[in-house]
Amino acid sequence: MTAATLPAAPASAQPERTKQRVLELLKRHGTLTAQALASGLSVSVPAARRHVQDLQEQGLIEARTERPGGRGRPQHVFGLTERGEAAFPKTYSTLCVDVLRHVEGLFGEGAVMQVLGARSAEVAVGLRSEVPDDLPLEERVRHLAERLCGTGFDAVVEPGAEGTWYIVERNCPNLTVARQYGELCASELDMFVNVLGVPVTRDTRIACGQGTCRYRIGP
Fold first, then answer.
1. On the chain, which terminus has fewer CB atoms closer than 10 Å, C or N?
2. Cα-Cα-Cα-Cα dihedral sign, residues 163, 164, 168, 173
3. In angstroms, rounded to a whole number, what is the distance separating the alpha carbons of residues 46 and 97?
4. Residue 37 to residue 55: CA distance in whole angstroms
């Protein structure tokens, strides 16, 4: 793909729209050089680089080094990160709901909890291998919250009274599924208990219309 083949954006595009256009170009064409992006945006190369830098700071795109066609002199190109890919609509949630609906229809109501419970148990085994039981509870809670952030939950840790802690999830990337299958939230709660080895209760739930999923952790 050469710069000359990229569609040009209107010169009057606003900065945020221009940044969105950068993401769209990278989604459509894969990796591109700053020069190719500038041509596609109808802006100067320095202007394109400013937009690229902003998007890099937001974690949406990353710089790479590639050889054109696998040969020739290496060149710096830019491509979407996993977070950048997530900015585009996906149908995963619809697929997941359809699969769970068929599981329930074929094997009965309890089958959905069995499937999701098995998945959570598997995740818990992996996490427990990373978080030894002899670590202080705060460290285990913070490690779990960090892993949750990595999967889109935007989790933060808050101290509570008498040695308790809270994990507060400010986003639910599985909201479409959770609204139709409460078993998903139940399996998440079980996973927290398995990983942390202490009582965990949920005070609020996004799938029920509340602003966060708030978990109380500790005795």
1. C
2. positive
3. 45
4. 13
Instruction: Evaluate if pTM is beyond 0.85.
Output: no
DSSP 59-114: TSEEEEEE-GGG-SS-EEEEEE-HHHHHTS---HHHHHHHHHHHHHHHH-THHHHH
Q: Both tokens of residue 131?
A: 């978080």
Residue 67 has pLDDT above 80, yes or no: no
Q: Which two tokens stand for residue 95?
A: 């697929």
One-letter amino acid of 106: L
- For 212, the token pair is 């966060």
- 130-163 pLDDT, tens digit per residue, is 888 889 999 999 999 999 988 888 899 999 998 8
